[in-house]
Amino acid sequence: MSHAAPARWWTAWGTAGAAVAVLAVTSCSPSPPHPAKTHGNTAPATASAGTAGTPPSSSSKPPVGGTSTGQLGATLAVSDSSGTRLDVTLKKVIDPASGANSYSKPGSGKRFVGVKLRVKNTAAATYQNNANNETVVVLADGKTLHANYKPIANCGNFDNGQIKLKSGAASTGCVTFQVPKGQTVVKVSYSNTVFPGTTAQWHVS
């Protein structure tokens, strides 16, 4: 009896098995890598200058604006986009204030309130403006009042409101308001109404 046939069967099975094994290994091999999804703390992609991924420059200067605040007696910064740079001090709120003469009287149901300011020019260029236009008061009811222009006793209105200061110079004067009786001044503000800039605001009550 010959045993050659069984030997050929195992050889054929072994060859076929090897082929099956190769196919199995090939089908289980990892697929090409996909782009990773970022989650949480991952290193950012590096972008060359001028590409869409470049962050904005941190050296750009913010626009002049906002409000500097303080209490009565504080010196606050005032500036604007034209180059104005001031140190303004609210020296006193005179309430009530008397008229400078018999012709200077408040309207019916109102009283004079004087706001005494010291304005110092800290810029290199000369500062020229009208304090009556730049100063306002806010009442307890939220209403804003503008200057009245009438003079009060013992505190001049700069040069009829006009201020002209060389670099480093300062001037002190009063701005007059007519405030309804029963109302209280709670805030005083000084700014430049022509150019956008930083406003000084004092809380007085």
Structural account:
The chain has a domain at 67-203: Sandwich (Immunoglobulin-like). The protein is globular and about 45 Å long. The protein has 205 residues and is mainly β. The chain is 14% helix and 37% strand. It has helices at 4-28, 131-134, and strands at residues 67-71, 75-80, 85-97, 110-121, 127-130, 135-139, 144-146, 162-165, 170-180, 185-190, 197-203. It starts with a helix and ends with a strand. It is built from two helices and eleven strands; from the N terminus they run αβββββαββββββ.
> Sheet with the most strands?
9 strands, mixed
CATH class of the domain at 67-203: Mainly Beta
Number of strands: 11
The CATH topology of the domain at 67-203 comes to: Immunoglobulin-like
Strand content: 35-45%
Intertermini distance: 124 Å
Order of helices and strands: HEEEEEHEEEEEE
Judged by helices, strands and strand pairing, the structural class is mainly beta
Oligomer status: single chain
Keywords for this entry:
205 residues; mainly beta; Immunoglobulin-like; nine-stranded mixed sheet; 2 helices; 14% helix; 37% strand; disordered N terminus
At a glance:
The chain is mostly beta strands.
Topology:
Layout: H1 4-28, E1 67-71, E2 75-80, E3 85-97, E4 110-121, E5 127-130, H2 131-134, E6 135-139, E7 144-146, E8 162-165, E9 170-180, E10 185-190, E11 197-203
Parallel strand pairs: 1-11
Antiparallel strand pairs: 2-3, 2-11, 3-4, 4-9, 5-8, 6-7, 6-10, 10-11
